[in-house]
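Homework-ish question, so no full write-ups if that breaks the rules, but can someone show me the predicted structure for this set?
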Amino acid sequence: MKQVIYLITGLLLMAGLQQCSSSQTPSPEKEQQHKAQQTMDTSKKPANPAYSRTDNNKVELNDEEWRKILPADVFHIARQKGTERPWSSKYEDFSEIGTYYCAVCGNALFRSDTKFESGCGWPSFYEPITKGSIIYEPDHSHGMSRTEVMCGRCKSHLGHVFEDGPPPTGLRYCINGVVLDFEKAKAAEKKYGEGKKP
Ligand SMILES: [Zn+2]
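A: Not a homework solution, just the prediction itself:
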């Protein structure tokens, strides 16, 4: 039975790698830790002085400095260009209304209304929140020719962009959920709640 589970896991992983990237994945323990962290208030990170939802200045720290202030799984993906296991992010099958931020520096990256179900195993968007919120770079690693996307503020690795997305852009930003923070649209929620009152 265990072998079957390993086999299925292996096949899922391979299918994912063809779509997105490398074979390095965080351990299940760290992943669970991270999921727990994601449920807390994400607008402030006491351990990470670089994190701000309001400061637009570029952040430039070296890897040793990042290692000290980031959770291990975020450091691995963001600073070592790792890739989370497909279908491991709580944001993969997630349709709340709000904004996605860089989990490393707090830079706004995507709006929930540009998120779509790509079926690739990673949170997918068709457009960044602003042109400057993302930096693009050619990536020829792992024998593939892809375009890497990085945070426009801290240059953290986020994922890749592919040209098989839906209209209006035709793009698919395939993003590691580990490097995303989500904040619900409070104003919209409130308005909706008021509207529902008898
Ligand atoms: Zn960032």
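Now go work out the reasoning yourself. Hint: Residues 22 and 64 are 22 Å apart (CA to CA).
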